[in-house]
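Sat 14:20. Reprocessing the chain from the morning session after the first attempt stalled halfway. Input below, unchanged.
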Amino acid sequence: QVQLVESGGGLVQAGGSLRLSCAASIRTFSYYAVGWFRQAPGKEREFVAVISRNGRNTYYTDSVKGRFIISRDNAKNTVYMQMSSLTPEDTAVYYCAADRGSIPEMYAVARNYDYWGQGTQVTVSS
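Finished this time. Tokens:
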């Protein structure tokens, strides 16, 4: 069983930055592709970014390209997401999710990930 714990959320002004972390409870976290999703009030959960097991491959949703960077440190069993140039539209609960093996072919689909964290709130004020 993989337990994921997100941290790093908070309140930030528009234009600011935050770094989210997703820490896993297992030593074999390097076996898992990891994605970040977010859910704003009244909206469906949406894909943000995903990273491959070795960190060499990453994909982003268009709205965050050039502003967010996903990375990982397998020695620390942690995946990060550096978020910059934040806007109020980025306000949401952010979740990390893991799927054993390669990045899922349909990586933007939430049901393709087996393990989820409880989320961390990101609020961007205008």
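The chain has a mean pLDDT of 97.
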